[in-house]
Structure formats: C-alpha cells, structure tokens
C-alpha cells in the first residue's frame, strides 16, 4: 500500500493489525515508515529502534527505515552512531549512501567521491539515483557546476525511461478547448471544500517554503504532498467524466469523492488547526476536478523564474516514471509552458478563490506576500509564519535542507551557473 502513496489507509491498516498483534515485526515496520512519511519522525524513530533491538527477521529493512528517518529529521549525531554501530544492514549495498552521509561531516571530498562511485557502479537504479543526485547537490554547493550537470545527465540517462509527453499535452489541450469557450462547462456538485487549500505550482518553484511558512500558523496544518487530489482526478476518469463531461457528475459521487479527500486530509492535519494546506504538485492539471468536488477550496499559485525552476528540477531526484519529464530541460520547458498557459485561464474562468505569488517576491517581501495568501485562505496574519526555519515538522520533499534556513535569496538566479545549458527558447516563457 505504501508505494501507491495511500499513507493514511496503510497507517490505519497497520494500526488495526497491531491491536491484535502488537509485537508483529512487519506491522511495526509498516507503521514506522508511515509515521515518518506523515512527518511524525520522532514517533517513528522510537518505534523502529525498539523493533531493531528485538533483532527481527526484517532487521535490515527496519535499519534502513530508521537511518532514513534520522537523516530526514536532522539527527546527525544519532545517525553517525547508528552507522558506526554497524550490523547486518551495513553489508547491504544501499548502506553506501548512509556511510557517505556520515563521512560528509568530516571529509567532504571523500563523501562526494563515495557517492559518485556508487552512482556509477551500482546496478540498483534506485540506489544509483539516490547516490548520484546527492553527489550532484554537493557538487553544486561547491560551485563545480559542469561536474554536477554532467553527473545529473548521466544518472538521468541510466535510470529514467523514455518520457512521452503526449498524455500531458492532450489533457491540457482538451481543458484549454473547454476553457476557451468562455464559460464554465459544469457546476459544483457538492458543498465541500471549506477549510481546504491547495498549492498550484511546479516542483521546485517555492512550494515547500510556502507550505512551511503556512504550517507555522496556529490555524493552518500543512499536509505535505497528499495523494487525495490525485484520487479525485482518478475517480472522475474512472466515471468517464474527465474533463468534458463534468456536468454529468452526480452529487452522490461528488460527495463521496469529497468525503474521501477530507477524511485523508484531516488524518494528516496537525491537531488544533482549522485549515489543511495541500502541497501536492499535480493540482495545476486538475483545477476543474477540484472545483467540481471541493468548490469551497482556496488555491495559492506560486511561480518562479522558469530557468531556476528547470535547473532545480533537472538536478534533483524525482520519481523517474511519475516525473519523467524532469530528465530533460527541453521536456521541462514544455511542461512549464503548459502550466503557464492553463493555470491563469482556469482560475479566471472557474472563478476560483486564489492568490498568485511570485517566489522571488515572497523571498524579498515575505510579510507583504504571505498576508495576501492568508487573506485568501481565510486566517489572520501571525508573525510566526515569517520564521519557517523554526518549523519542527519533518520535511520529506527535495527542499528539506533549504527550508531549515531563514528565508534567503541564495536560490534566486541559480540558473546562471548553468547558463551553458539554456538556449533562447527560454526567453519567451513569462
């Protein structure tokens, strides 16, 4: 269940099983992984430590889950100690990444060498990607830009299947055809959505910074990249209604899809909050679906210099199938062009409650911009949102390191380090 992203359901299933068999090793591992991926890393670490102490048959997998939770939670001393202690898991080739992470603290050059060597030699494509893109990140930080770009190109070539953008093109083209008629082709079929908000933006456009700022607000709970919006879209596709036949959506089906979304969102929301903020990165292609099923929702669109967005995607480890377009700057440009074309048109035609934010403006004028966002979401300004680096919630996205620092301009203009990779076609993107 976990690979599909159905975290809430997987967690519930594990919890039910543990009531019957509290010492079951597989259920405890599953529950620990879910807790970590829901941002409850302290609880996950405690559970996984206890499990490993019992030396279960799944000790190796539990050890990798613990090591990853320690890494993402920033508990570096504990990770170092865990690596030094060794055990059966350290003999697995996947441990090379964690060994390099520990080495990084005292010998950066050696750590980069270890990661790049693993990326080039590993047969496991997942390991190749993890090690490779960690090395890319370090090379980029060290201003070794050509080496970073070349290594990223190698890893993409070795691990990313051919990407066919035809499905995205066709889906967006059909939505644009409907939008260009000048009037909404459906009306909402439920009354749900109040208390829900979505980011609308491309990966690496500032979505994590925005979520971490909002999650600091006492009334807003960030729920990460929740799969619920995608489930709404899949449900409409399954009913044969997406996108042209949304007017035929039955209220009972809309209410069911809305209830399923809300149930999962509430399970991920921090206790005491009133608004869920969903950072899933697919919403830009699904605005009519959300408008039909969750008409009370708010939306925050965020954009960034397209070249900065593009190079950040290209140098990052996205899922090679779900995000296959990130393996090429040309395909990234095409998807950004589609997003820039459809989102403002859909927001206007569907009369969505939305705010539009430019990442560079958010960085330079955080209070001014976040006030506009909070107004749309429907909560008052609280100065605590201006310190996202103090957010204790575990960040599982690719920006997990950046958001642990105060808001800064270090990522603005990053593309200029890779100017050799961009041609004049990029100048036309607004």
Please specify the SSE layout and strand pairing:
Layout: H1 7-20, H2 25-37, H3 41-53, H4 59-72, H5 76-85, H6 95-103, H7 108-121, H8 125-141, H9 145-159, H10 166-179, E1 196-200, H11 207-215, E2 220-222, H12 228-238, H13 251-268, E3 275-278, H14 287-293, E4 298-303, H15 306-314, H16 329-349, E5 353-358, H17 359-364, H18 366-377
Helix pairs in contact: 1-2, 2-3, 2-4, 3-4, 5-6, 6-7, 7-8, 8-9, 10-16, 12-13, 15-16
Helix-strand string? HHHHHHHHHHEHEHHEHEHHEHH
State the shape. Answer: globular
| Overall domain count | 3
The name of the CATH architecture of the largest domain is 3-Layer(aba) Sandwich
- Low-pLDDT residue spans: 1-5
What percent of the residues sit in helical stretches (DSSP H or I)?
40-55%
The termini sit apart by 40 Å
Per DSSP, what share of the residues sits in E-state strands of 2 or more residues?
5-15%
CATH class of the largest domain: Alpha Beta
CATH topology of the largest domain: Rossmann fold
Structural class: mainly alpha
Give average pLDDT, whole number. Answer: 94
Question: CATH-wise, what's the superfamily of the largest domain?
Answer: P-loop containing nucleotide triphosphate hydrolases
Please report the number of helical segments: 18
The strand order across the widest sheet is 2-3-1-4-5
Any idea what the radius of gyration is?
Answer: 22 Å
For the biggest sheet, the summary is: 5 strands, parallel
Query: How many strands appear in the DSSP assignment?
Result: 5
């Amino acid at each position: 269940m976990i690979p599909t992203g159905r975290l809430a359901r997987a967690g519930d299933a594990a919890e039910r099983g543990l009531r019957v068999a509290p010492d079951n090793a597989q259920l405890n591992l599953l529950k620990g992984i879910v807790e970590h991926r829901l941002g409850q890393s302290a609880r996950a670490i405690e559970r996984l430590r206890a499990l490993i102490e019992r030396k279960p048959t799944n000790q190796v997998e539990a050890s990798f889950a613990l090591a990853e939770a320690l890494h993402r939670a920033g508990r570096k001393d504990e990770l170092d100690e865990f690596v030094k202690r060794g055990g059966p898991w350290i003999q697995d080739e996947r441990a090379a990444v964690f060994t390099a992470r520990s080495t990084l603290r005292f010998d950066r050059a050696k750590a980069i060498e270890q990661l790049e060597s693993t990326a080039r030699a590993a047969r496991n494509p997942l390991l190749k990607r993890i090690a490779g893109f960690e090395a890319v990140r370090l090379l980029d930080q060290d201003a070794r830009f050509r080496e970073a770009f070349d290594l990223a190109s190698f890893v993409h070539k070795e691990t990313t299947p051919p990407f066919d953008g035809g499905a995205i093109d066709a889906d967006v083209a059909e939505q644009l055809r409907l939008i260009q008629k000048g009037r909404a082709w459906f009306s909402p079929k439920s009354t749900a959505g109040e208390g829900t908000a979505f980011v609308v933006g491309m990966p690496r456009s500032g979505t994590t910074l925005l979520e971490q700022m909002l999650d600091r607000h006492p009334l807003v709970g960030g729920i990460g990249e929740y799969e619920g919006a995608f489930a709404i879209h899949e449900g409409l596709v399954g009913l044969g209604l997406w996108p042209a036949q949304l007017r035929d959506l039955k209220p009972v089906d809309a209410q069911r899809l809305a209830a399923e979304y809300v149930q999962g969102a509430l399970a991920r929301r921090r206790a005491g909050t009133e608004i869920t903020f969903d950072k899933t990165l697919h919403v830009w292609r699904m605005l009519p679906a959300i408008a039909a099923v969750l008409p009370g929702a708010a939306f925050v669109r965020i954009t960034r210099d397209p070249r900065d967005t593009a190079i950040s995607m290209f140098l990052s480890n996205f899922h090679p199938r779900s995000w296959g377009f990130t393996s090429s700057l040309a395909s990234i440009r095409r998807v950004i062009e589609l997003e820039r074309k459809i989102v403002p048109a859909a927001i206007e035609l569907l009369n969505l409650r939305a705010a539009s934010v430019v990442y560079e403006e958010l960085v330079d004028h955080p209070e001014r911009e976040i006030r506009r966002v909070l107004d749309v979401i429907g909560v008052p300004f609280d100065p605590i949102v201006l310190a996202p680096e103090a957010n204790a919630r575990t960040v599982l996205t690719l920006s997990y390191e950046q958001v642990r620092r105060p808001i800064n301009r270090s990522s603005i203009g990053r593309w200029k380090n890779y100017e050799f990779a961009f041609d004049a076609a990029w100048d036309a993107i607004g």
